[in-house]
Design a protein that fits this description.
- The complex is a heterodimer.
- In chain A, 62% of the residues lie in helices and 1% in strands.
- Chain A is mainly alpha-helical.
- Among the domains of chain A are: 232 residues, Cytochrome c oxidase-like, subunit I domain (Cytochrome C Oxidase, Chain A, Up-down Bundle); 68 residues, no CATH class.
- In chain A, strands 1-2 form a two-stranded antiparallel sheet.
- Chain A is globular, with a radius of gyration of 24 Å.
- The two termini of chain A are 28 Å apart.
- Chain B is built from 3 helices and 10 strands, in the order ααββββββββββα.
- In chain B, the strands form 2 sheets. Chain B has a 5-stranded mixed beta sheet with strand order 3-2-1-5-8. In chain B, strands 4-10-9-6-7 form a 5-stranded mixed beta sheet.
- The interface between A and B is large, with 101 and 88 residues.
Chain lengths: 592, 227
């Protein structure tokens, strides 16, 4: 076991690195990098589950009433003879949203990359609370498996939508689900504790353990994004945890927080849920914006344009994110005057988002752009997030929202933001940091094929949904043929479903590529992308404890194409006056 | 699917549709600007031999421009939308001479209650019809929306009307149809197993036809009460 002593700064450091037994090194690990990788494997599994649920629900929408190929292995209570039942369809919709939001996108952004990147980008040995970090992962895994298990209990998984609107969620007689509904609440409560432990850890580490010279305005933007995200998580997620415990009490011990029969208020659930839920939306996008900032600056070989305005935009989004939750409730029966104020804050939040998009474009302007796979995904993010941001303006304008609320317009919007936005950035991040994490490269051509397939199929699936929303097609309906106003949407739905199957297949292709590269990828150099941040000064993969001696930082993370330099990058721990062109060779030797 | 909004038959729908298309054109400009810009930069500034990226950290003037332009657009949009919203939703906007009807949602049906012969809701001669909503055109209608069990949402696409029905609350909405025809109420909020087929027919009559229908119904209701 490694011994712990304290440096003068009070930060514990591992002095020796005896080999650890397998179970301590890879299973119950306290190393932030291993925990990040544990999160990565777990969340990729949950991402696949979420995708599989989407494939099933798209089958019903594309081919209503037909037997799903291979569906006959499902039990009678879900799909007798492979034909999906309406109640199972609602479970699919509910669990697709739940898995993607809570167990795929959020932990992919935060669980994986906050853990992996914070210590090695700010220059420290590990997280402030390594054991809390380990507990956070194990609680997360338990909560995810609890949620998954609800498919196999009597009555099946929750059927109240991922937003769990009461009284449907609070009253088992209304939804027809008892055990699955309780499991939903318990799982999210455990998830809430996991997220809370993570947030405390990230905030403490960033505040206290930055390397010498790593001032706040020399932090990489991804660290800024993860820091603000952790604050959002700290303030918003406990509200959800409290709310699901109240919901659990309504379901089981007869309280009536959300049931009007006993004096409760159904709208209280919506206020609590969205008070969490809207900051959650930014938890799901800010780290993605951080990845994109790193990758676009690196791929353009140019300093990020407007670093400080990027930081202030993150702060503005986070602050405004707490006062826009009511825009989910324009048609809920809330006082219409509140609708006015929520519309104003919601429209204003478009401004910092626009600033970020323009800054990314200005970063590319005048650059020397390399078309690497991470860069393609980052540029894909900018193009698709823009569509998601602009479609958000339609629903922010509350008179228009009267018509498009709860239609496929909203479904299109959320997928442009969460898939075209967050997931594209996540793919970019996986390709970008894979060499550091595993010491191997992912084949560039294979990665570009993945990008092309995902980009084309994503647009084929989700762009036509705007049109379905304009037709007035409601969310979460099992069968469009029941409605006269939806008489001509079936062909579009069939086309979308076929494209969705292709999109899922491109995800499986990525899975194969990922695992193949783990074992067969070309060995990665320390700094394959010629990037500037501190993790690229470490070997690939870095050792437990990261640094023998902590680095000193001399400047910001985006000094690409510095005029005093021959090469077009400058690591944060290099001084340009020392690493001048004439001295470069000797300095490089010294580094090694 | 033809990328258009369906037929609109309400007075407030005109404003909603106009706002929709206004936002469409504003966002279309931003969309083209960003997407074409990104593609152009990708091509124009691709890495080439002997070409080095510009070393610049930003430009205050540019930041101010792309903060101010979206901000002003959003303020304009906020004021414009706010007026329309108030005209539809604020309590002052409700017409005085409206026909008032109660609609109560429950899993998975719409119960529509009309005033009886005395034209006043809330007494014994009211009559209730299941899954059938009949109203006159060219006259404002106020619907008091309630729910017996879970949240439903009262959605008539052609009238551009959508409002959640929340148990424990009575939520009034109003609209005015501009033409007669047959349509549907759809439930737009997930309400359980039968959500996908929770619909009711909507019959909008010319005023004189409505009068005839209403008199038949009240007559029938009185006869039924007498039995």
């Amino acid at each position: 076991m490694a011994t712990m002593t304290a440096e003068p700064s009070g930060i514990p450091v591992r002095e020796e690195h005896h080999p650890q037994p397998f179970i301590r090194k890879y299973i119950f690990s306290t190393d932030h990098k291993i925990i990040g990788i544990q999160f990565l494997f777990t969340t990729l599994f949950f991402l696949m589950i979420g995708g599989l649920l989407a494939v099933m629900l798209r089958f019903q929408l594309g081919f209503p009433g037909e037997a799903m190929p291979g569906g006959s292995i499902l039990p009678e209570t879900m799909a007798p003879g492979g034909i999906i039942l309406p109640e199972f369809y609602i479970s699919l919709v509910t669990m697709h949203g739940t898995f993607m939001v809570f167990f795929a996108i959020m932990p992919l952004l935060v669980g994986v990359y906050a853990n992996y990147l914070i210590p090695i980008e700010i220059g420290t040995h590990d997280m402030a609370f390594p054991r809390l970090n380990m507990i956070s992962f194990w609680l997360f895994l338990i909560s995810g498996l609890m949620m998954l298990s609800s498919f196999w209990v009597v009555g099946g998984a929750s059927r109240s939508g991922w937003t769990q609107y009461a009284p449907l969620s609070a009253n088992p007689d209304a939804s027809g689900v008892f055990t699955g509904q309780i499991l939903w609440c318990l799982s999210i409560a455990v998830f809430g504790f996991s997220s809370l432990l993570g947030s405390i850890n990230y905030i403490t580490t960033i505040v206290n353990q930055r390397a010498q010279g790593m001032t706040w305005f020399r932090l990489p933007l991804v660290i800024w994004a993860l820091f603000i995200t952790a604050i959002l998580g700290l303030l918003a997620v406990p509200v959800l945890t409290a709310a699901v415990i109240m919901l659990l009490f309504d379901q089981t011990i007869g309280t009536t927080f959300f049931l009007p029969g006993g004096g409760g208020q159904p709208l209280l659930w919506q206020h609590l849920f969205w008070f969490f839920g809207h900051p959650e939306v930014y938890i799901l996008i800010l780290p993605a914006m951080g990845f994109v900032s790193e990758i676009i600056s690196n791929g353009s070989r140019k300093p990020i344009f407007g670093y400080k305005s990027m930081v202030f935009a993150i702060m503005a989004i986070a602050f405004l994110g707490f006062i826009v939750w009511g825009h989910h409730m324009f048609q809920s029966g809330m006082n219409p005057r509140l609708g006015m104020s929520f519309m104003v804050t919601t429209l204003i939040i478009a401004v910092p988002s626009a600033i970020k998009v323009f800054n990314w474009m200005a970063t590319m302007w005048g650059g020397a752009i390399k078309f690497t796979t991470p860069m393609l995904f980052a540029v894909g993010f900018v193009m698709l997030f823009t569509i998601g941001g602009l479609s958000g303006i339609f629903m922010a304008a509350n008179p228009v929202d009267i018509y498009i609320h709860d239609t496929y317009f909203i479904v299109a919007h959320i997928h442009y933001v969460l898939f075209g936005g967050s997931l594209f950035a996540i793919f970019g991040a996986i390709y970008f940091w894979f060499p550091k994490m595993f010491g191997r490269m992912i084949n560039e051509t294979a990665g570009k094929i993945h990008f092309a397939l995902t980009f084309i199929l994503f647009n084929l699936v989700f762009f036509p949904m705007h049109g379905l929303g304009m037709e007035g097609m409601m969310r979460r309906i099992y069968d469009t043929s029941r409605y006269t106003h939806l008489s001509d949407v079936q062909d579009t739905n069939t086309m979308i479903s076929i494209a969705a199957f292709g999109l899922f297949a491109s995800g499986l292709y990525f899975g194969v590529l990922f695992f193949w590269s783990l074992f067969k990828g070309k060995p990665a150099p320390d700094n394959p992308w010629e990037a500037n941040t501190l993790e690229w000064t470490l070997p690939s993969p870095p050792k437990h404890g990261n640094w023998e001696q902590l680095p000193t930082v001399y400047h910001g993370p985006y000094e690409y194409s510095h005029p005093d330099m021959d090469r077009d990058w400058l690591l944060q721990n290099e001084r340009p006056d020392i690493v001048s062109p004439a001295h470069e060779v000797t300095i490089r030797k010294g580094e090694a | 699917m033809d990328w258009s909004l369906p037929l609109n038959i309400s007075t407030q729908g005109v404003q909603i549709d106009n706002l929709f298309w206004l936002i469409f054109w504003l966002t279309a400009v931003a969309f083209v600007l960003v997407e074409v810009g990104v593609l152009w930069f990708l091509w124009r500034y691709r890495a080439r031999e002997g070409h080095r990226a510009r070393y610049t950290h930003g430009h205050l003037g540019a930041e101010i421009v792309w903060t101010a332009v979206p901000a002003l657009t959003m303020i304009f949009l906020g004021i414009y939308s706010g007026r329309i919203w108030a005209g539809i939703k604020s309590p002052d906007s409700f017409p005085k001479d409206a026909l008032t009807i109660n609609v109560t949602a429950k899993q998975f049906e719409w119960n529509v209650t009309y005033p009886g012969a005395d034209h006043v809701l809330g007494n014994d001669d009211d009559f209730t019809i299941r899954n059938r909503f009949e109203i006159p055109a060219h006259q404002p209608v106020v619907v008091n929306l309630e729910s017996e069990d879970v949240i439903h949402s009262f959605f008539i696409p052609e009238l551009r009307v959508k409002q959640d029905a929340v148990p424990g609350k009575v939520i009034p909405i109003w609209f005015e149809a501009t033409q007669a025809g047959d349509f549907q109420i759809a439930c737009a909020e997930l309400c359980g197993l039968g959500h996908y087929s929770m619909r009711a027919s909507v019959v909008i009559h010319e005023p004189e036809d409505y009068e005839r229908w209403y008199n038949e119904q009240t007559g029938a209701a009185q006869t039924a009460a007498a039995d």
